[in-house]
Amino acid sequence: MSLSKPIYNLIGAYFEQLFNHPIRTKSLTSCVIATAGNVVSQKISGSKEINPHSAGAYGLFGLLFGGTLPHYFYLFLDRIVSDELRFRKFYQFLLERLTFTPLFQLCSLYFLSRFEGNSHQVAFANLYRLYWPVLQANWKYLSLFAFINITFLPPFLRVFTANIIGFFWIIFLANKRRQVAKKTE
């Protein structure tokens, strides 16, 4: 019972920040989750030392894009799909999967490579090799989670939930990028 009060206080403080400063809170949360996902991925792959450039790239991507883009997309999605529309949540899900996901995946693959210090040519070559297989995997493995996120969770928690799902996706993505990098060496 003594542990529950600090946990409730932490959750309450997080929700207060989420309500008062949604962009900043979502961006910082995304940064922490993305960095942690990359570090876990590096550990799972057997790396003896953490590559700070890779972890920093994921953290920077989370900070700049992982909180802001989904925040504004979900707001847009709630505005553009009418409340009176039958199967509203299903249409929102389709829009998320068919518009936002491909664009977000494109941005993530390109900017992660750039944030790691690669040139435009290298980033574009990585994007070219990885985009379609990664997008297909995203649709295949994350669609159910995206549907649950849009259908059953309140709008203010969608980005946080997407980031939690993204933690596991980052582990997959970092591993996939590492495999492609090893093949091209």
Radius of gyration: 17 Å
Residue share in β-strands = under 5%
Order of helices and strands: HHHHHHH
Percent range for helical residues? over 70%
Q: What is the straight-line distance between the termini? A: 54 Å
Write down the overall geometry.
globular
How confident overall, as mean pLDDT? 93
Counted by DSSP, the helix tally is: 7
* Major sheet characteristics: none
List the helices and strands and how they pair.
Elements: H1 4-20, H2 22-44, H3 52-66, H4 68-80, H5 88-115, H6 120-152, H7 158-184
Helix pairs in contact: 1-2, 2-3, 2-7, 3-5, 4-5, 5-6, 6-7
Overview of this structure, please?
This protein is mostly helical. It has 7 helices and no strands. Helix 2 packs parallel to helix 7, helix 4 (68-80) runs antiparallel to helix 5 and helix 6 packs antiparallel against helix 7. It is globular, with a radius of gyration of 17 Å. The chain starts with a helix and ends with a helix. The relative contact order is 0.14.
Condensed summary:
With 185 residues, the protein is mainly alpha-helical. 84% of the residues lie in helices and 0% in strands.
Q: Which features characterize this protein?
A:
185 residues, mainly alpha, 7 helices, 0% strand
